[in-house]
Specification:
Number of strands: 23
CATH superfamily of one domain: 2-enoyl-CoA Hydratase, Chain A, domain 1
Helix content: 10-25%
Family: Belongs to the peptidase S41A family.
Organism: Massilia soli
Radius of gyration: 22 Å
Largest sheet: 8 strands, mixed
CATH architecture of one domain: Alpha-Beta Complex
Protein name: S41 family peptidase
Pfam family, one: Peptidase_S41
Number of helices: 11
Keywords: Hydrolase, Protease, Serine protease
Shape: globular
Length: about 500
């Protein structure tokens, strides 16, 4: 039986968490399996038996096996995970843009939980948590030694319940203790406004089930205010990803015809797919084509896409597609670099494994993984430097991250152990400035990158960044970028 699937993408795991997977039924592939390693399986059984007989206190069989699965999957890469009943339910909630938590995207680094970015308007955002902050304790329990899944579970809870985080920040001599109240986080996927006569701002903060129809409503509202737009800024900064159909639909809104948006390459034949700007890939649940209601002028209006180190996965797919077709100018700083596909394999009615199964490639065949999208115009986040962007953790910083898969000649770099103490004076100065800076109101008059985008539209000088793009930090796997197109996906997307 060939399973239907739903494409989803995102970054990291969120303590209110951005979905990052493809949902499929678990197919039986007994004929494809290699012979089981009997010696290693005997060792596993021996260790299991020793724990049952010799450990200081009895251990429940289900708990022991669940922990074994958790450790086995988590050791693969930062995005593969075993989902127990609670995690599975929370993931399904997050796909709809709502969850209960603190509103932070996190990843594990050197045994600690590191903040990728806080979600706008969340408890973490309002409390001043910044990208690059490190969580060392949760309710006074040391994070070091916990799995990322365990840390996330501790930060989740009921609405209005309390949790206390201990935060270490570069440039601070001592960690600081931050009490927070959990809330139901509802992420508004699409926002827009006219920033100046003739110039519109359209922001996508996360790709959700309703992103495409919501975008259509917002765009139509903008054109109702000004039918002769001179330029549109598509803001994907701090967008951690979300659902793949949303990324395809947003890309298709600006591109002519049925252009290829993204392809995936993996070990299994079903992992080799091509996604086009067609309704079947972005609007399968809609009664009609949601993009049919867009004004025709959207296909030709000048577009600038804003990105930064918090732009990941789905947002990188959109930026990469519009960049490859030269449909938009990409402005800002290098993106996160999360270019891998996670597939959800259900194990039971309420448990599953989230497994990395493929890499994403832009229409021109560029691998996004561990590199990201390099802007056409590099612009810092603030007028006085890159601020938080220099402190952000990226995919290439994550331990055991998947290699890029196409840069065969890249050389490995020595891994850097990043702690608050291992930092030069320049980093400390940037950290102090970022710590004291108020959270940016995207789309406001104080939004430096937005103002530079407007300058670009008008032919005025743009203040460029002196920063160089970052390369992948580990030696890529022996994978060549495919010369031929992967097989076109078959079946309906939901």
């Amino acid at each position: 039986m060939k399973a239907k699937s739903i494409g989803l993408i995102g970054v990291g795991v969120v303590a209110g968490f951005a979905a990052s997977l493809q949902l499929t039924a678990l197919a039986q592939r007994g004929g494809d399996l290699q012979p089981l390693p009997l010696v290693e399986l005997r060792q596993f059984a021996d260790v299991y038996g020793l724990i049952k007989t010799d450990y200081v206190e009895p251990v429940d069989d289900k708990q022991l096996l669940s922990q074994a699965i958790t450790g086995m999957v988590a050791a693969l890469d930062p995005h593969s995970a075993y989902l127990d009943k609670k995690s599975y339910r929370e993931m399904q909630e997050s796909m709809q843009g709502r969850f209960v938590g603190l509103g932070i995207e996190v990843a594990m680094e050197n045994g600690y939980v590191k903040i990728i970015t806080p979600i706008e308007g969340s408890p973490a955002f309002r409390a001043g948590i910044k990208p690059g902050d490190v969580i060392t304790r949760i309710d006074n329990a040391p994070v070091r030694g916990m799995s990322l899944d365990d840390a996330i579970k501790r930060m989740r809870g009921e609405p209005k319940s309390k949790v206390v985080l201990t935060i270490a920040r570069k440039g601070d001599d001592q960690p600081w203790v931050l009490p927070l109240s959990r809330e139901e986080i509802r992420v508004q996927s699409v926002k827009s406004r006219m920033v100046e006569p003739g110039y519109a701002w359209l922001r996508i903060s996360q790709f959700q089930e309703n992103t495409v129809p919501d975008m259509v409503k917002q765009v139509n509202a903008l054109y109702a205010q000004d039918p002769k737009l001179k330029g549109l800024v598509l803001d994907l900064r701090n967008d951690p990803g979300g659902l793949l159909p949303g990324a395809i639909g947003v890309s298709a809104a600006f591109l002519p015809g049925d252009k290829k948006i993204v392809s995936t390459v993996g070990q299994l034949p079903d992992s080799n797919q091509v996604f086009y700007a067609r309704r079947e890939f972005y609007g399968a649940r809609a009664s009609g084509d949601p993009l049919a209601k867009l004004p025709a002028a959207l296909k030709t209006v000048p577009v600038i896409v804003l990105v930064n180190g918090g732009s990941a996965s789905a947002s990188e797919i959109v930026a990469g597609a519009l960049q490859d077709y030269k449909r938009a100018t990409i402005l800002g700083s290098q993106t996160f670099g999360k270019g891998s596909v996670q597939t959800l394999r259900p194990l039971s009615a309420d448990t599953a494994v989230k497994l990395t199964t493929a890499r994403y490639f832009t229409p021109n065949g560029r691998a996004i993984q561990a590199k990201g999208i390099v802007p056409d115009v590099m612009v810092d986040e603030t007028a006085d430097g890159d601020g938080l962007n220099s402190l952000r953790v990226r995919e290439s910083d994550l331990v055991k991250h998947l290699a890029n898969g196409s840069d065969k000649d890249a050389k490995p770099a020595a891994p850097a152990i990043k702690t608050p103490d291992a930092m030069d004076a320049e980093q400390a100065a940037r950290s102090a400035a970022a710590r004291d800076r108020k959270p940016l109101d995207f789309g406001s008059k104080d939004d430096f990158q937005l103002q530079q985008a407007l300058n670009r539209f008008k032919g005025l000088p743009v203040k460029l960044s002196a920063a160089e793009p970052r390369a992948e930090k580990t030696e890529p796997a022996a994978l060549a970028r495919p010369d031929a197109k992967p097989a076109e996906i078959k079946g309906e997307r939901k």
